[in-house]
């Protein structure tokens, strides 16, 4: 149930991510217009900086990996293996890493709020795993 909640939260990121990109694009254009009034700009350097910045903000890889970790967690829950507590613990650690990276790359309060909800669900998972280990 907790993993499914995280999966649902991943889906809620997409509209926020699209909005964040549009806001960032507008802000960058405004900053460039202000800067062009005062200084000369090397357009090649500017494009390189923009690409670097946009790549730094891209959270698609993290969303995909987080989704894969969640699926793997669910597969392990359903597996016949009786000794799965440690494996689930390791998977939950990987889930935590991806959630933390999402938060670090968010640059958006809406995305940050979803990250906090994901962390909350993950902490509940860790508590449950601690009870079975």
Can you walk through the features of this model?
The protein is mainly α and 133 residues long. The chain has one domain (2-132). The chain is built from five helices and no strands. Helix 1 packs antiparallel against helix 5 (109-132) and helix 3 (60-78) runs antiparallel to helix 4 (85-105). The two termini are 19 Å apart. The model has no long low-confidence stretch (mean pLDDT 88).
Element-by-element helix/strand order: HHHHH
- Major β-sheet annotation: none
How many β strands by DSSP? Answer: 0
For this structure, the quaternary state is single chain
The class by helix and strand makeup works out as: mainly alpha
Rg for CA atoms = 19 Å
Which shape, going by the Cα principal axes? elongated
Portion in strands: under 5%
Helix content: over 70%
Low-pLDDT runs: none
Give the terminus-to-terminus CA distance: 19 Å
What key attributes describe this structure?
87% helix; 0% strand; 133 residues; 5 helices; elongated; mainly alpha
Short description:
The protein has helices spanning 2-38, 43-57, 60-78, 85-105, 109-132.
């Amino acid at each position: 149930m907790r993993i499914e909640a995280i999966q649902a939260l991943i889906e809620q990121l997409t509209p926020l991510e699209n909005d964040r990109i549009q806001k960032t694009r507008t802000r960058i254009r405004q900053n460039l217009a202000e800067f062009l009034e005062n200084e000369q700009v090397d357009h090649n350097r500017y494009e390189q900086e923009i690409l670097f910045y946009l790549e730094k903000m891209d959270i698609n890889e993290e969303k995909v990996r987080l989704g894969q970790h969640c699926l793997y967690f669910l597969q392990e829950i359903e597996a016949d293996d009786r000794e799965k507590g440690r494996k689930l613990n390791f998977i939950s650690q990987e889930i935590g890493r991806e959630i933390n990276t999402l938060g670090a790359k968010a640059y958006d309060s809406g995305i940050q709020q979803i990250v906090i909800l994901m962390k909350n669900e993950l902490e509940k998972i860790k508590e449950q795993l601690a009870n079975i280990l």
